[in-house]
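Bumping my old thread because nobody answered last time. Still need a sequence for this structure:
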C-alpha cells in the first residue's frame, strides 16, 4: 500500500464518524466513515434514505452489510462499494448507504406442514426464519394494473405492491411472509438478486393465507 492511502486514513481518524458492522459475528466496531446528506431536496426518498459516503482503504465493510451509526443510532444497508484508486492501488472507497426503516417488530416466516400430536393430521403453518430485529428498507406502494384473464368480460384489476430491499445474508424464498405487526403482513412474490451486489430487491404483495405460526417451538393460531 502506498503512503497516500495511509495518509488519507489518518484524516478519518481525526474527522470521521464511528460506525459498527452489526451483521458480523462478532460485530465489528471502531470503523470510520465520512458522509454527506444528499442535497436533492426535490427527491424526498433520496434525501431521507440515502447517504453518500467514503471509508478508508482497509475498511472491513462489504456490500450487503448492515451498519449502525454510533452517534445517530440509525441503521443503514451498504448498497455498493466503489474503489478510489491512485497508481492502481485503492486509497479509499466510495459507498452508498440506504436507511433501514423496517419496524423492530418485523420478522420473516416460511410455510411449513405441521402434524397434530393428537390426530396426526397435517395442517399448514409458519416457521420463523428471521426474527426481530430485521434490517431492510420498505419503499412506497407502486400502483399499476393488469388484465384480469379469468373473467369472461375483459377488465382492469388494480394491483399494488411494496418493494423491500433486504441484505442477501437473510435466507428468503418466494412465498415467505413478512410480518410487520399483528395486522400487517405481506407475501414475498419475487426476489431479484442482480440489481445490487449484496442486497435482494423483493416484491411484496398482500398476504391473505391463513395458517398456524411456530415461534420458538411453540404453535400459535394465526
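Sorry it took so long. Here it is:
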Amino acid at each position: 500500500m502506498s503512503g497516500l492511502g495511509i495518509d488519507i486514513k489518518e484524516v478519518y481518524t481525526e474527522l470521521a464518524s464511528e460506525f459498527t458492522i452489526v451483521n458480523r459475528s462478532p460485530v465489528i466496531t471502531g470503523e470510520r466513515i465520512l458522509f454527506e446528506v444528499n442535497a436533492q431536496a426535490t427527491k424526498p426518498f433520496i434525501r431521507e434514505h440515502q447517504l453518500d459516503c467514503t471509508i478508508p482503504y482497509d475498511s472491513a465493510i462489504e456490500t450487503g452489510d448492515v451498519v449502525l451509526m454510533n452517534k445517530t443510532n440509525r441503521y443503514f444497508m451498504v448498497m455498493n462499494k466503489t474503489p478510489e484508486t491512485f497508481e492502481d492501488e485503492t486509497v479509499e472507497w466510495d459507498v452508498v448507504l440506504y436507511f433501514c426503516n423496517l419496524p423492530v417488530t418485523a420478522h420473516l416466516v416460511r410455510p411449513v406442514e405441521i402434524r397434530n400430536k393428537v390426530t396426526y393430521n397435517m395442517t399448514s403453518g409458519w416457521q420463523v426464519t428471521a426474527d426481530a430485529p430485521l434490517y431492510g428498507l420498505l419503499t412506497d406502494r407502486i400502483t399499476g394494473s393488469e388484465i384480469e384473464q379469468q373473467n369472461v368480460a375483459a377488465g382492469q384489476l388494480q394491483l399494488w405492491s411494496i418493494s423491500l430491499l433486504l441484505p442477501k445474508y437473510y435466507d428468503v424464498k418466494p412465498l415467505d411472509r413478512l410480518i410487520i405487526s399483528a395486522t400487517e403482513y405481506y407475501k414475498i412474490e419475487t426476489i431479484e438478486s442482480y440489481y445490487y451486489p449484496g442486497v435482494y430487491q423483493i416484491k411484496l404483495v398482500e398476504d391473505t393465507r391463513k395458517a398456524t405460526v411456530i415461534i420458538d417451538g411453540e404453535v400459535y393460531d394465526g
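Residues 3-99 form a domain with the Thrombin, subunit H fold (CATH 2.40.10). Let me know if any region looks off to you.
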